[in-house]
User: Fold this.
Amino acid sequence: MTAQPVNKKKYDRIEAGLNELRSMGLERTLRKFPGVGGKFHDEAGKTLNFSSNDYLGFSRNDKIIAAAGAALKSCGASAASSRLVSGTLPCHAELERRLAAFKGYPAALVFGSGYMANLGIIPALAGRDAVVIADRLAHASLIDGAILSRAALKRFQHNDPAHLAKLLDGEKSAAQCLVVTESVFSMDGDLAPLKEIAAVCARYGALLLVDEAHATGVFGPNGAGRVRELQLENQVDISMGTLSKALGAYGGFSACAAPLRDWLVNRARSFIYSTALPPAIARAAEEALDILENNPALGGELLKNAEIFRRRLREAGFNTGKSASQIIPLIVGKNAKALALAERLREKRILAAAIRPPTVPEGTARIRLSVTLDHSQADLEQAADKIIDAGYAEGLCGAKLR
Ligand code: PMP
Assistant:
């Protein structure tokens, strides 16, 4: 049988859309990386990787790999069923027990990914008659969860509890208000004023979900996150997290009260209608929790290294915004500038992604650098020299501190 010719017309709108993205410098394309892990992104070991979320280097940790390998052998590659059918295995129950204890909550529930967690939790907590109020810079998964919930969606100014209070004040007649924010913002590396936000939510009886994707493993006691660090477990209803960044595995989770977990089991559609996490991955995450427990200083060490690196870049004239974490943006403004800087860095064997709208607001295109424990002090010093050289060539910073 001969293949049907592609109906050209059918794709006209898509071609036009792609052309428009190209003309605006906004087209995203997939590049293939060798996946060697660690601090390098190439097999030759010459290009330093600053675009990984493997903050503690756990994805290559021998103990974690061994734990996952053993589970792969004993349980197979797939859980082969959704959790409510026959997919809840001892490794899932154990991981949830450990995550609850780690986060300081009575219960926890694991999802297929962090994205799926937010996509499931928010509609479960907020229906058509509710209002979701999200920080203006909240991650796409939080916004997508809110859209899927069919609740009204409002945005408060970034990290502004007074604006949040004003919005909540206007929603007193709503059946339910759910406030969502991040703990460490993924593209700015700045920290949410969680105490103040929690106090505002308590005043208005609003539910509060905090996405700790980038804080888990890094901030707080044993890397338990900022909610625990600030002792807000009783005020933050859902401490959401991912297993796929500092924990080096894959999957997402919600730590919460037991009735909330029961409700999510019954109502979070991304949990109900999706296959359970592969057992090897669940075991990898559990092993990561063991390592964190036995090495409580890892997160602090990473934050200290990042602070030195950031100070150097800032003093050279880069705009690093309000970063106070392992995530350091170099905010350059125009899309083309961010792409040009990324290219110069690539020539200097530094891999760092140019982040453009809609991931970040219009006019705030940037390079996002993430520091990991795989980077030695010497790596960071050399990288700073190269980044400052590239910034100078692009007219973004002065030469004097090179
Ligand atoms: N929340 C935030 C703040 C994130 O940055 C991400 C990942 N980029 C997610 C949720 C989604 O997590 P996952 O990668 O596990 O799907």
Summary: The CA atoms of residues 240 and 254 lie 4 Å apart.
